Amino acid sequence: MTTKLILACTVCGSRNYSVPGNRNQAVRLELKKFCNTCNAHTLHKETK
Ligand SMILES: [Zn+2]
Prior knowledge:
Bound molecules: zinc ion
Low-confidence stretches: none
Strand content: over 45%
Order of helices and strands: EEEE
CATH topology: Rubrerythrin, domain 2
CATH architecture: Single Sheet
Strand order of the largest sheet: 2-1-4-3
Number of helices: 0
Helix content: under 10%
Family: Belongs to the bacterial ribosomal protein bL33 family.
Keywords: Ribonucleoprotein, Ribosomal protein
Number of domains: 1
Shape: elongated
CATH class: Mainly Beta
Protein name: Large ribosomal subunit protein bL33
Largest sheet: 4 strands, antiparallel
Structural class: mainly beta
GO molecular function: structural constituent of ribosome
Mean pLDDT: 91
């Protein structure tokens, strides 16, 4: 089953990206993405 994961900026909390994938209950997805609010590349974490 594939669900959509929302990635939120860890600096400002903006939800900038959604990616298809499976929710992994053990590990939270973390990706470096460009945040328009911070105007910089920041770490984005999976959120609900
Ligand atoms: Zn940000």
